[in-house]
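Running this now, will post back.
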Amino acid sequence: MNAHAPHYQADILGQGYEQATLNFPDDYEGQVIATLVRKKASQPTSKAVLYIHGFIDYFFQTEMAEQFNQHGFDFYALDLRKYGRSILPHQKYYNVRDLSEYDAEIDQALKIIAAEGHDALLLCGHSTGGLTTTLYAAHHANHPLIKALWVNSPFYDFNMNPVKRALGIPQISKLAKKFPNLKFPSELNKWYTTSLHQDLKGEWNFNLDWKKTRYPMVYISFIRTIYEAQKEIHRGVKIDVPVLVMHSHQTQNPKKWGKAAQRSDVILGVKDIQKYAKKIQGDVTIQSIKNGLHDLVLSEKPARDQVYQQLFQWLNSKGL
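Update: finished.
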């Protein structure tokens, strides 16, 4: 397949959404693919967006895509290898040993987007995708296409007891070098997916095989991957395009279902996000979203309206 001319077919999200399979060399599990999804704006445009999802996630946020379309951007999203549309029968879900494994699909997606007539791109990512895109932007200074970075609740640190974080994570990370497939309790809040899905207590429809309600155990190779990537963020990276970091106004860890689960980040610590966003060298704007969920664009309507208003205002101020 020519990287510049992918074969698109209809996507599961319906009218206007198309997907193309991207192929890569085999890795430690065998065959590897990623999936590029696109939805074009109603008028031809040279501006585009590339969105990268988070952990235990895939692209389904159609309202976000359509907001970008309405503001004159062609929208693209990747389902990374071993996630969502890209999972293959022989693969372990979400299995990664180095965050730079994802560079291959980001590189290829950017080549395709450029070949499809775009010269200005907003790179954006949510959670683990926010960590991935921050490092990608830092490692690809002066990229001809990337003009700005928007991260939605980026995974800049583990949200856990500080002693456990300081002592436990480095030890687990060391162990993962030899035993990548060992599992460890994930400690993910059980109410998060419940707060989102329309059949549970939310307003969105998505595939519960691809974005699971519970994920009690995590491969320690994933912990090592994140820990190694976060070390770079903690030292402070330099980014040569404007950066917008958004997060909820509060973190909660509710044990019971209630308002806290619907109006706060129950996955990451917002103080950690703020702390490490301030360490990024460059033109960085940090914004707090009142009552935002971990994935801010899936929050209740007043919160996500605020997200889009502030995002497009910021893009406009940066000439995008």
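The mean pLDDT is 95. More later if anyone needs it.
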